[in-house]
Amino acid sequence: MTDPLAPLLSLPGVADAANAAKDAVFQVHRHRVNLRGWATTAAEASVRAARASAALEGGPTEIPESGEVSDPVLAGSLRIAEALGGLVATWQRAPLQALARLHVLAAADLTTDVGRPRVSEDVSQRLDMLGSLVTGGTSVPAPIVVAVVHGELLGLAPFDVANGVVARAAARMTSISTGLDPKGLGVPEVACLRRSAEYEAASVAFASGSLEGLAQWILFVCSALEAGAREAKSIADAALTG
């Protein structure tokens, strides 16, 4: 059976960028703190990811001192952060079910129409194709799979609201489920927020379907994964000194 993502490996710079991303994430898992105390650093990474993802969707980044979050976008992103680990197994065997659950969590305070993609043959077909990739339909390096999941969900926008939060959460689940970042230590979402204009432009380029656009997006995602690993190292370093 032909691997549908295999041609992406021949795009300029993609193979090297994927390897660099893998190496960066691997190294942060070898950090002294993360060998034993990774649960604490992973929890901090998860919250930072949720805040950055919400900000990219127009929500605030700060959590009130009271802990009571009233903003619906940030609240949804934090709900996903809390539930994500428990959804990874579902993502591996029934990805469309996991996507529906992500949308329920993300959009519960935004709309009553939660968990159901738009009724469209194109949406249905593309989600089915994405599901087949997640469940073993490709053997390309994990950073490329992460990039395709992220970019496809952003471009397709299968739900009426909260598509960005769902796309970034699905990318995070893919990082975990593929073994790229099994403990969820990286925070590439922060890099996406800091480079939001570049992030948006690369997403549009991916959606165009051109070879140049595909390469642009994958290279961006790989660089965000590397930056996310640096963010993870800073979390671990702080835990070591704190």
UniProtKB/TrEMBL annotation:
InterPro entries assigned to the protein according to its UniProt record, in alphabetical order: Fido
Domain Fido: 94-223
Superkingdom assignment: Bacteria
Name of the protein described by the UniProt record: Oxidoreductase
Organism for this UniProt entry: Lentzea kristufekii
Phylogenetic placement of the source organism: Bacteria, Bacillati, Actinomycetota, Actinomycetes, Pseudonocardiales
